[in-house]
Amino acid sequence: xxxxxxxxxxxxxxxxxxxxxxxxxxxxxxxxxxxxxxxxxxxxxxxxxxxxxxxxxxxxxxxxxxxxxxxxxxxxxxxxxxxxxxxxxxxxxxxxxxxxxxxxxxxxxxxxxxxxxxxxxxxxxxxxxxxxxxxxxxxxxxxxxxxxxxxxxxxxxxxxxxxxxxxxxxxxxxxxxxxxxxxxxxxxxxxxxxxxxxxxxxxxxxxxxxxxxxxxxxxxxxxxxxxxxxxxxxxxxxxxxxxxxxxxxxxxxxxxxxxxxxxxxxxxxxxxxxxxxxxxxxxxxxxxxxxxxxxxxxxxxxxxxxxxxxxxxxxxxxxxxxx
Length: 323
Ligand SMILES: [Zn+2]
Hints:
This protein is an alpha/beta fold.
């Protein structure tokens, strides 16, 4: 992971103020889409809390900061995403026991939990118990891309920090700084729909960008399919076990549509302007937002319940107007 933050000045200011004031709360919840930079800033925040050098804040250059970054520090507990499977109750119980032990060096212990929406309901409930009986000096930093999937009892115990996409121009500049040509930086920053982490992944792994482009184009094709053909496609998708990736692509494509529609910036897509205009004749901003919400809901239900994946995808695709 690259350590240069792109955007989020306002949130960094808030966090620095918290650190400076010394009035740390028990739990922070970073909320925003995947790849927006929540984890990177969560790490920086954890490092700053544990760093013994006050002047070092958010630079994170001392050896303790480095050890935290490498998840090699006894007072730092990291539950990364993706988990081997859905996060189970046993992991939370182990965490609870470890937190009971005295902190090793620092006055604080920091627990960083990524994508808490992937907790099972039992694990989330067990975690709530830890939050309800705070150990002194333990700070939780939790990230999620789906706030609605967390129990409100957890949310209410956290200071919620909302992450908004940074301006595309900022991502473009950052990519140029990393050595990309201006034209390529322009395309990648636009297509990543304001998600710096995604833009960086595209530059580091061109094969990810290729497969993304392919799925994106496939999704656009599907918009012109008949209902019957859409159903056949879903059948195929399930057989190939690509449904999770495809749901992510739908989310990114819809975000891309929103960006283009709001800013009327047709260069912001890998899709031809003519085709985009055709799509926008059938798809209003309101509909795009509704479809985004629906896609998120399906992702949540697939992660948390035993709903029928095939049926959920069929209903979603049938809700898209035929282009
Ligand atoms: Zn440090």
